[in-house]
Amino acid sequence: MSPALLYTGSGIILFSIGLHALLVHRHLLRKILAANIMGSGVFMVFIAMGVHGDSGVADPVPQAMVLTGIVVSLCFTAVAIVLAVRLNKLTGCTTLAVDEESSID
Amino acid sequence: MTELIVQQQWFLWMTLLPLGAAVAAFLAPRQAHWIGLVTALLLPLCALAAIAAATLSETQTITAGNWPTPLGIALRSDGLALVMLAVTALVGFIISCYALGYFPVRGHHQSRARYFWPLWLFLWGGCNALFISGDLFNLYVTLELVTLASVALIALEGGKAALAAALRYLFISLLGSLAYLLGVGILYGTYATVDIILLGDMLAATRLNHAAMSLMIAGLVLKSALFPLHFWLPQAHTMAPAPVSAVLSALVVKCAYVILLRLWFEVFPALDTIAIGHLLGLLGSIAIIWGSLMALRQERLKLLIAYSTVAQIGYLFLVFPLAHTETMASAWIGGVLLMMAHACGKAAMFMVAGTIHHTAGSDRISRLAGAGGPIGVLVVVFTLAAGTIIGLPPSGGFFAKWLFINAALVSGQWWYLPIILSGTLLAAAYIARVLGWAFLDVKRSSYPVIPWMMKWPPLVLSIIALLFGLIAYEPVQLALSGAPVSSPVLVEFGP
Fold first, then answer.
1. Do the Cβ atoms of B192 and A52 come within 8 Å?
2. What are B48-81's pLDDT values in tens digits?
3. What number is the ipTM of this complex?
4. Which one of A23, A42, B198, B441 has the largest count of C-beta atoms within 10 Å of its C-beta?
């Protein structure tokens, strides 16, 4: 198994774990962590895609993209945590209220 | 003079100006509304100049920092980008005027105005950047800019329900954009470029590419709230203040859809998309019926309008199954036309709902009973704006549906016909329900005074929406310049 394939595979597994956790867990902090793990999985796939041929030189473009992606995911994490803390102060609970979820449809 | 217009990269200024103004408005919160208004005045002028420049010369392409395309970031002003820039400028200008009345600069809600302007300008700049982006990764970044600003705007009210809606929207968007990004990564691995035109030329029908396409389409479908992934939309769009609801429904949902249009017609034509097209068409059809039925059941005006958005998004997704070889242009331009018409109509409806909420103290539809005087005027504006949602001639919605019906008949997919028509009937029904309450013979003791800034902007926009079909020729011609579809636009039924 080549390193590129190993990284791609683990990236996709990380993405799936994060996806599962994001959908299953109710605690907001866990959801935020899950989204970060999903993001890391995607970034890992990007890094693995930088391997072209056997030259041993990595393509720098995906690394630049991952850097941008990390900045974006940092912003999202910060905003999500601020909102979650604020919600916790107002309601005292650490989940999105259930009664509202059922009232959507 | 002509030289001056052509040489300037106006569409680039349309991104830089609002982003710069957002920073300025954040740093000078007391002057934020003036900064916002001046920017909102300048952007339509920039849009006109950009259109003039594009008609005088060819489609303009800029590569950031003059790096050549496989490496550099391409920014293009093709027809689709230009019409979207123009519609955003028009709707954004009117929403800005309305927001000036909605968020009073003095008084105890001062902080809302302070945060609204920077975030709204930021969102506007993000939208404009998205429309001109020519590569998949830049589209991801700009989509995230738009999402971040929308999340903050939804949370603007600061209440429990608003915060919960904002957080839910954030998680959903994050899920959608990460799925999209994974697809981009897979495409980059094979082709070592993310430029839309280069990818469109190189793409082959391999399994890996189909997987990437499915991921990207699924992510964007989630973000553009197609049934059954629409569950987050009604909450998010109704918890926000009225100008924000208007922005979200008119512009933000369209951002993900524009990317989807670009992917479908410019990147993936080589792939086997027929099955996915039919799936999207089926979901769109269910969205039309389900969204309209849900709108019919709502007690609150804002929720009714939000579910109407769900139904209208269903129409937008009929483009994909209807775009066969000979009906390609009809379906494509129908989708673009519907986006523009819906942006004008829906923004006006949300603004009216906000004014009614502001003056009547509640947006329950039953509160409209016996609406006369100033509220009566609002009901009239609401009805005018609803004309394009129902699809009455001569609105833009009418022509878009006409093109869809044409495409359905020519491509032999007659089963979309009853769905398009029953969606129209249901839309007329839920609008008539609002009017039914308004015409009830109830005596009112007092009529509230409505500030003119909250009354006239929606009226202007709703009249534009209603008469859009009469001036649709120019935008359609503009959109078709540099369009990825080449077949003639069919306006008559024929073989």
1. yes
2. 998 888 888 766 777 777 777 677 788 888 889 9
3. 0.92
4. A42
